Amino acid sequence: MSETEAAEPAAEPAAENPQIAVEREIARREAIRADAVPLLDPREGIPPVICDAAGLERVIRAFAAGHGPVAVDAERASGYRYGQRAYLIQLRRQGAGTALIDPIACPDLSGLDAALADAEMVLHAANQDLPCLAEVGLRPRRLFDTELAGRLLGHPKVGLGSMVENVLGFVLEKGHSAVDWSTRPLPEDWLRYAALDVELLIELRDALHAELERAGKLQWALEEFAAILATPPKPPRPDPWRRTSGMHRVRTRRQLAIVREVWLARDRLARERDLSPGRVLPDAAIVQLALEAPRTPAELLALPAMRNRGARRHQSVWLRAVTRARNLPEDQLPVPSQPGEGPPPTHRWAERDPQAAKRLATARTVVAALADEHTMPAENLLQPDVVRRLAWSPPAELSPATVGGALRALGARDWQVRLVATPLAKALIRLETKGEL
C-alpha cells in the first residue's frame, strides 16, 4: 500500500434510504412472526398467589434483591365490578422471578414500592394500570411503556400479544383478558395467563429499547414516558351523568332531569353492590326512561329496556327516580350541556369560523405527512387536541418560535415541538400569505 493510499481516510458508508430501512424492519418483523411459537407455561411454573403479610414480605425481600427493570401488570374486573380497582397484580424481575399478589388481601403495597423506588417499571399501556396501582401504593418513578414504544416505532398492532409475537416470536394465549378477576379463588388457567403476561415483558422492553435506539427515537420515548408519570390524576368529571350513551336523543330539560335522577340512583346501587353500573341498568335503558317517562309500574315494565332481569329487579328505584324528576320545579331542571373550555366541536368550525377550519385542515395535513415520514400514528406525533387548539387560537404573529411556544403551552413535548413547529408555522404562514384566511 502506498503512503498516499494509507493517508486517505476510509470512506463513510452511505446513509441508508429511510424507506429501505423501514422495509427492512418490516421484513425482520414478518420473519419473527412467521417462526413464532406458543408460550404455554411460565418458566418457573405458576407462582402461588400472595394473600398475607408474611408472603408479601418474602416478595419484597426477593424483589429488592433482584436486579434490572421490574415488569408490572394488573388485572381489573371491568364490566363486572364498580370502579377500576386491581384484583391481581403481577410482577417479574431478574433474580426474583414472578410474583402474583392479591391486592384485596394485601391492599397496602407501599413497602414493595419503597423497595423498588430506584427501579424502572415496565408496563404495557401504562395509563390503564397506573391509577389502580397507585390505589395500593405502587407508583413508578421511572417507566417504560411497551405499548407506547410500539406506537412510536410504527408497529401496526400494539396489543401485548401482537407485540410479543412480532418482536420476540412467541404467541401468548389471550383468552382470559375479559374475565371477572374478582373471582375467588382464581382458576389455575387464569393464573397461568396472568403470569405469562409479565413473563416476557422485560425481554420485550429490551428489544424495543434497542429498536428505538436504531430508529433514533429513544429520546422521544423517554420524554413520553416522563410525561405520563408527570401528568396528575384527572379530577372527577362534573356532571358525569351527561356522558350517558345515547344522550343525543334527549332533547328537553325534563328529560335531562330524568337521565340525571336515574343515573344517580343507578350509581348508588352499583356502588353499594360493587357492580359495574351497566350490569345494574344499561345506559340505553336510562335514555328510554327519559324519553318515555313512565308513570306506573306497568308502563315501566312495558318498556323494551326493562326486559333485562337486572333492570326489572330494581323497578321501584327507577320509577321513584323518574317521579322525582317529573316533580322538579322548572328552576331546578338541568340546563343543556354548556360549551366546555377550549374549541367547539370541529364539525361546526366551517360555519362558525371558516378561517379556523382552513387552519385545522392545513395543520392536520402537515402532521399526517410528518407522522408518515417518521412511521408513527399522527396522534402520537402530536395529540389531536393540541392540533385543534392551535388551529382555533394560533399566535398573533406566526413563526416557528411562536408556534413552538404555543405547542409547549398546550403540553407538547420537546421532541414533538422540534419536529412539527417549523413545518406547521411555514404552512400556516403560506395559508395566510395566499389570502385564504
From TrEMBL:
GO molecular function, one term: nucleic acid binding
Record-annotated HRDC domain positions: 252-332
Low complexity bias (residue ranges): 7-16
Keywords: Exonuclease, Hydrolase, Nuclease
InterPro entries: 3'-5'_exonuclease_dom, Exo_C, HRDC-like_sf, HRDC_dom, HRDC_dom_sf, RNase_D-like, RNaseH-like_sf, RNaseH_sf
Keyword Hydrolase part of the UniProt annotation: yes
Name of this protein: 3'-5' exonuclease
Biological process according to GO: nucleobase-containing compound metabolic process
